Amino acid sequence: MLTCAIIDDDEINRLTLEHYVELTPDLKLVASLADGIAGLTFFREGGKVDVLFLDIEMPHLSGLELLRVLTDPPEVIITTARQDFAVDAFELRVTDYLVKPFEFARFTQAVQRVQARRSGPAAPAAAPEAPSNTDLFVKVNSRMVRINFDEVLYVEALSDYVNIVTAKHKYIVYTTLKALETRLSSFPNFIRVHRSYLLNTQQIESIEDNTANLRGGHFVPIGKSYQEAFYKGLQRI
Q: Residues bearing 4-aspartylphosphate (predicted)?
């Protein structure tokens, strides 16, 4: 049983979420609150839940602002009518991002994602920290696309753009390699191996002549100025 809270300034949306929670045997509703200030008060007065269903656009204190001030937030599922906050939300390590209106099936999928993050081998002392979210949203043309960066082979700089390459897709994104490298700082498998390449070390099959051979027949050069740090890092993989 997971305890949960809802924070949303729209009464209809709150009632819908309350109904979805009622339909879910694994959830127990602890609080249903009408704005971010009420949510902040709830947590500062010692309120605790396993899951928070959180709207973004609310008066006085937005959902993202609330997340930034909470010292130990629960698993968070964003529920919003806006798609353009997805990047900011996932940088705050939210578990899922639901765009209104969404069906009960999508709500259930998000709850299952929370359960998957919380499951794992028991620890003798404190429970282990939930695994890091490996997804990021990136803007591809006019769409926000969710990419699982565990599946990314490498990222290549293309002037003011980057080419994000997986085994099945290539995504051209309007950003710099430096900016994306900063966003990927919490992904330890990604390292800079060339002035034009970021590499996922978990995708390496072999290395020959300072070239990384990746799954699917892809090749990435290891730049001379990056070689010492790269080979030292391999000893810890």
A: 55
Task: Count CB atoms within 10 A of the CB of residue 166.
Answer: 18
Beta-carbon contacts of residue 152 (< 8 Å; ≥ 6 apart) = 164, 165, 166, 190, 200, 203
- pTM, two decimals, is 0.54
In degrees, rounded to 5, the angle at the alpha carbon of residue 143 between the alpha carbons of residues 142 and 144 is 130
pLDDT in tens, 170-220: 888 888 888 888 888 777 888 899 999 999 998 999 998 899 999 888 999
Asked, for residue 57, whether it belongs to a domain, the answer is: yes
Nearest CA to 189 among 200, 181, 180, 205? 200
User: Domain check: are 185 and 84 in the same one?
Assistant: no
Say if CB 58 and CB 9 are below 8 A apart. yes
221 touches 194 (CB < 8 A): yes
Using an 8 Å Cβ cutoff, are 27 and 4 in contact? yes
> How big is the chain by its Cα radius of gyration, in Å?
21
Q: From 78, 101, 118, give the residue that closes a domain.
A: 118
| Cβ neighbours around 87 below 10 Å, total | 14
Sheet harboring 170-173: ordered strands across? 170-173, 161-166, 152-158, 197-200, 190-194
pLDDT at 228 over 60: yes
